[in-house]
Amino acid sequence: MKHIDLNITIGFCQPQELSEEDQALLRAAQSATLNSYSPYSHFAVGAALRLADGTVITGANQENAAFPSGLCAERTAIFAAQAQHPDQPIDTLAIAARNSHGPTREPIVPCGSCRQVMTEIEDRYHRPIRILLYGTSGVYVVSSVKDILPLSFIGESMK
Fold first, then answer.
1. Which terminus in the chain has less CB density within 10 A, N or C?
2. Which residues are catalytic?
């Protein structure tokens, strides 16, 4: 049997080590957690994305008693961006979360459904989405969704 090695490199830094533009995006994601509707999980997630033209769009998780009807923060932001600015690729996406104790210590990572959506957006625009994952302990800096979903299923997979 042949083995395939998949290697990724994820940066880790403090927010002040990032550019002012990235710090502002992290603050927007943190602020977006206040727009979360999470009466069941009490886990508020905020996302802020910056489009190629500099436009910033935020999203927050929205829960529903019929759990499959809710939507994650990342997808609310991405779908809003696609609906309002379909000609603009996403440059960077920042994600933050808080629970009943405040902001999470460890950086929060996207769920599988969000990773799939993000992968298709990268494929659609033929460019990577940089991801900033915030926690009070620091920020993971990911160069592409493919780094957190290396074996991905995209439209080309069906041909």
1. N
2. 74
